Amino acid sequence: METADVIVIGSGQGGVPLAADFAKAGRNVVLFERDALGGSCINYGCTPSKAFLAAAHAAGRARQAAKLGIHAHVEIDFYTVMERVRSIRSQFNQGTKRRLESAGVRVVCAEAAFTGERTVSGGGVTVQAPIIVINTGTSSTIPDIPGLAETPYLTNRNFFDLQQIPPRLLVVGGGYIALELGQMARLGSQTELIVRGDRLLAQEESDVSAVLADAFKQDGIGLHFNVTVQQVAYTNDVFALTLNNGEVLNGEALLIATGRKPNTGALNSAVTGVELDAQGFIKIDDQFQTTCAGIYAIGDAAKQPAFTHVSWEDYRRLKAILCGEQRTRNDRVLGYAVYTEPQVGRVGMTLEQAQKQGISAREVTLPMAHIARSIEWGHDLGFYRMVIDTQTNSILGATLVGYETAELVHVFLSLMEAKATWQVLEQSVHIHPTYGEALPSLARLLVGDNMPTCPNM
Ligand SMILES: Cc1cc2nc3c(=O)[nH]c(=O)nc-3n(C[C@H](O)[C@H](O)[C@H](O)COP(=O)(O)OP(=O)(O)OC[C@H]3O[C@@H](n4cnc5c(N)ncnc54)[C@H](O)[C@@H]3O)c2cc1C
Ligand SMILES: NC(=O)c1ccc[n+]([C@@H]2O[C@H](COP(=O)([O-])OP(=O)(O)OC[C@H]3O[C@@H](n4cnc5c(N)ncnc54)[C@H](O)[C@@H]3O)[C@@H](O)[C@H]2O)c1
Fold first, then answer.
1. Which residues does the UniProt record annotate as the domain FAD/NAD(P)-binding (predicted)?
2. Residue 282: DSSP 8-state
3. pLDDT tens column, 366-385
4. For a substitution probing ligand 1, which of 18, 30, 40 has the most ligand atoms within 8 Å of its CB?
5. Ligand 2 within 6 A of CB of 196
6. Cα–Cα distances in angstroms (integers) from residue 82 to residues 51, 57, 89, in the given order
7. Domains, the chain, ordered by start
């Protein structure tokens, strides 16, 4: 058996920089990875999906330019679209490999499992270390639908291997992945979304769902709410989905996007005293430590909000903790975005969430029709919303739905990180005519006088 200073299981967004930093500092580090280096973000998640959406949204924007009087003929070279996606993914994946190699991390390309106390084995290698970090991420959950397992359905794992555009795409799910990849409609697939609930992105406020539903209808996407798939068949290269309302939907491709499960089944974690919760996520304390001293877990597998920036921030905090600093994972402002068009930029609490916590909260909302920039640019879908604490005047959260709001929401992230009051935003002089100008306008709705909230409106 070998010994090391640090073992990292999984080359996710936190594991890679952590392994590289410790190796560069002269520690003996072994990293196990059973699949492509760089984890889901680089290979099957953020990187390929956002490179893909760059093409889909370019096509969508070109078509929507008709309302500005610009009539474009859109021709899709799907092979080139997907080769570009794959080449960016490969570039990032190779970058991860070089980063680990140059730092001196020993990479074992194999599935790892615990075989004893703080002992990990995989690919014929057994290593023991005083510090072990688990960063094994999640995989798609596949619903138990009769017939599905026998068909060549897609998940986010093989979606980006597509060589030809399916004329008709069926998508099961109404969450992040279903919506983002469902906008393949913009590249020309006739797309149908099969949603078991009554709205898209059900965890968001209902008017967010309504805006996205409008946008999807404008893209020609069929929305089927309150339905489940009872049977899947695949004959002559065509899927047939029988819904519980009797309807049958056909398509050349079927994407399953029904949520994620933690990659902890293969870890045999009980051997070393690492406990899992009922869903299989690794239990951790405020400082990322599992139920076994010396073993830590970060990222999606530890039930952190499943975003790359969270796993990456986990790494920064865990590294500080391992270097003796007093840090926790509980004092950070976290935002996220959905890269549909229009985008959803979110941070902090909604009004409902704040009220459930007993906070005296208030929200203000500014529709797109009240924003000069959006009228000038012809972006009429969406709204900006801010939630504040009426006693402390602190900003509790924001929901921005509209053009490139994943960028704009960072204004709120920074204000909230700085613990600024809404008055700081209200007094800010933003540039005319920008989308950003509408953020002080939003805050001015709280002043309650009859003054205009910004120029020209
Ligand atoms: C389609 C899609 C789009 C996404 N888009 C975004 C986005 O735009 N923005 C965003 O912030 N987040 C996005 N996410 C989420 C994001 O990808 C994850 O939150 C992020 O990758 C963090 O994951 P992680 O670090 O926990 O582990 P992962 O990146 O999942 O990596 C875990 C690694 O561990 C390996 N592994 C698992 N078990 C073992 C084992 N026993 N032995 C060895 N290796 C093992 C896996 O092979 C994998 O490589 C997206 C996800 C998907 C699926
Ligand atoms: N932009 C981003 O940051 C981004 C993009 C993609 C994914 N992600 C991350 O990945 C996570 C997973 O995304 P996701 O889209 O897989 O999950 P999700 O939880 O967002 O959506 C799952 C959807 O599947 C539906 N569903 C679940 N079980 C079903 C069943 N048996 N039959 C029919 N429908 C079913 C749910 O009702 C929901 O609509 C997200 O929560 C997010 O954290 C982030």
1. 5-312
2. B
3. 999 999 999 999 999 999 99
4. 40
5. yes
6. 9, 14, 11
7. 2-140+261-322 (3.50.50.60), 159-258 (3.50.50.60), 335-447 (3.30.390.30)
